[in-house]
Amino acid sequence: MNSTKTHKTICSYCGVGCGMLVGVDAKGTISVDGNPDYPSNKGMLCTKGRNLNYVAQDTTDRILYPEMKWSRNHPLQRVSWDAAFERAAAVFKSIIAKHGPDSVGFYVSGQCLTEEYYLINKLTKGFIGTNNIDTNSRLCMSSAVVGYKKTLGEDSVPICYEDIELADCFLIAGANPAWCHPILYRRLEKHKEENPNVKIIVVDPRKTQTCAGADLHLQILPGTDVILFNAIARRLIDKRKIDVAFIKKHTANFEACKEMAYTLTLKEAAKKCGIPVADIRKAAEYIGNAKKFISMWTMGLNQSVIGVAKNVSLLNLSLLTGQIGKPGSGPFSLTGQPNAMGGREVGGMASLLAAHKNLGNPKHRKEVSDFWGGGEIQAEPGYTATEMFDALDEGKLKAIWIICTNPAVSMPNVKKVERALKKAKFVVVQDISHNSETTKFADLLLPAAGWLEKEGTMTNSERRISYLPKVIDAPGEALPDAEIIWRFAQAMGYTGFDYANSSEVYDEHCLLTKGTEIDISGLSYERLINEGSFQWPVPHKTHKGTPRLFTDRKFFTNDKKAHFNAPSTLYNKSEETDNEYPLILNSGRVRDQWHTRTKTGKVKRLLTHIPQPYLEMNAVDAYLRKIKDGDIAVVKSRRGQVQVKVQLNYDIRESVVFLPMHWGKVLNNDFGRANNLTNDLVDPISKEPDFKYCAVEVSKF
Ligand code: SF4
C-alpha cells in the first residue's frame, strides 16, 4: 500500500511560481513533481524545481537554535528563544531611545511569505515609527514598480501567462527567460513551435539561449535600451502603426513621448545602440504588424541607474500600439523572486505603504495607522537597500535585522557592505542556513523554518496568489519567520501582534486591501486551500479572481488614462570606460543556480551544469589581451578585483564581459565574486542599483 501523503504547494525559487505536488512517504522521504492542475506551469518544473526535495531534506547546514554573542569579541553561543527575544528587544529599545527610530532598520527578502512581509512592514512603519524596511526586491524589480506606477497609476502587472499562447509578437528585453524563467519560456517556445508565424525579438548584448528561438536578436551596446525603444516608437509613428483611437481616448501625454522619440534619427539611434538600422526597422515592423503584442523584461532593464527611463520607454510601446487590456497583449515584467509580488502588495519596501496605498498621501497613512492601531507613519521613505548599508557604514544606522537574504554576497560593491556590517552596533540575522555568508556578521542568529516547514501565501509574476501548507516539521528549534516577528514585536511591548497563527495575519492583510485596486478581501486560507489559486483583485467571497487588468481600458491613474512618459535620459552615464577600464561588465544568472547558492549550491545534480564561476568574454577581446580559453584572469574595476576562469566565444559583444552573480567567497578567497566589482550607484527614483554596467579591465593572472 502506498502511504505517501501528497501536498499541493508552490516552488520556492523564481517568480514563475510553478505549482508542485510534494510527497512525503512513511519514512519521511520527500519527493516533488509538477502539479498538472496548476495553471501557471501545467505540471512542468525546471531542473531547480525538480531537485527541491534534496534541499528540503538536507538539514546538514541548518541553523538549529538561537545563538548570541554576549559582546562583539565573543563567539556565538546557544541561547533560548526567550533570551534571544529579550536581548533583541533590549538592544533595539535602547538604540531607539538614544538615537531615534530611524537608527534601526530591517532588510528582508522576496522569498519571504506575504504574511511575514506584512508583519515586518507593520512592525517597522506602524509601531517602531521608521520606514527603514527594505528588501532585496529593491535589487530586482523596483524600477519596474516605478515604471508601472508612472504609466498605469499603480504597480500592476496587467496580463497573465495564458496571454503567451494568444500573442503573435514578443519583445524580450534584458532577460534570458530560457535560463532564468524556464517554465514560462517553455510555454513561449511551444507556442512558437506550434505557430511559426509568431515573432520573437530579443534585446541583449549577449547571444543567450533565449536567442535560439528568436526571429531577431538586437545585440545592443549596454545602456542604450532607451534609445532603441525610442527609435522603435519613432518608426511606429512614422509608419502609422500606432493605435490613434486608443491613444486619443485612453492615454495622456502622447506628445511628450513623441518628442522624445524624435530626439534622434533612426540612423543616429542605430549607431548609438551598435545595431543595424535595418534591424530597428524590422523590430518596428514585427511590433506594428502584430495583432497581439507582449513585451517581457527583467534585470537588464531594471538594474540600472536609468532603470525607470528604460521601463517607461518600453511601456510606451504598449500604449502606442494600444496593446494593453486585451487578451494576448500587454507589458509583462518577469519577477525574479517567488514572492517579490506579495511583498509589493503589502508595501514591504521603504518607499511603499501597505495595500498599494501611497506613502506620500497623508490620508492613506492615517488609514493604515488607524487600522494597525500603532503610531503615526512617517511620510518620508526610509533607507532603501544600498542606502541602508551606506547608513550603517556612516554610523547613522546602528542596528540591522536581516531576514532570509544574503547581502554579504548579493549587494553591489560588496566590500563596502562587509565593512558596514562590521561597523554596525547590532546585527540580527534570521535565516535557515549557515551557508549564508551574512550569518558570519550576526550578533544574534535566529533559526527560521524553511519552505515546507511553515504555512503562508505567495504571489507569482501573473498576480496569482497561492497557499503553501506546512508539510514537515522544522529541524531543531527553528520557528516560522512570521512567529519570530510577532514574538519580537510582543517583546518590544507592542499590542496588535497577538496572533495565534498565520491565517489571522493573512485575514488582516486581506481586510486592509478592501476598497483598493488590489482588493483581496474575498480571499482566505479556506478559499485558497479549497478552490486553488486566485489572481488579484478578488473583492468578494464568490469572486473568481482577475486574470487581466484594464479590460475596460480604465487605468489606475486619477484621470483613468494610461500615461506616456518621456524617459528622463537616453544613456546610462553611471560609469565611464577609459584606457584603464575599457570593458563593460554585465552580471546575471546561470540556469541551475539560485541567488547566492545557499540552497542550489548543495545539490550535486545542479552543479553538473555550471560548477564554477566563469567570465564570458569575446574571443577578440581575449586575443588582444593574450588570454586563452580556460585561463585564469584577473578582473578589476574601480572598486575591487576577482580572479576567475575565462570562457571565450563570439556570442557576447566585443567590449562586454559577463560574470554570474551567484558566487561569493569560495575556499576563503574571492574567486569569481562578481559583487567585488559592481557599482552601488542607483537609479535616482527607483533606487535600484546598476548591476549591469560596470567598467572593468581583464588581464591574464
Ligand atoms: Fe521553480 Fe521557477 Fe523552475 Fe518553476 S521555473 S520550477 S518556479 S525555479
From TrEMBL:
Cofactor: [4Fe-4S] cluster; FAD; Mo-bis(molybdopterin guanine dinucleotide)
Domain of life: Bacteria
Keywords: 4Fe-4S, FAD, Flavoprotein, Iron, Iron-sulfur, Metal-binding, Molybdenum, Nitrate assimilation, Oxidoreductase
Keyword Iron: yes
Ranges of residues in domain 4Fe-4S Mo/W bis-MGD-type: 4-60
Family named by the database record: Belongs to the prokaryotic molybdopterin-containing oxidoreductase family. NasA/NapA/NarB subfamily.
UniProt protein name: Ferredoxin-nitrate reductase
High-level lineage: Bacteria, Pseudomonadati, Bacteroidota, Flavobacteriia, Flavobacteriales
Full-protein positions shown: 1 to 701 of 1176
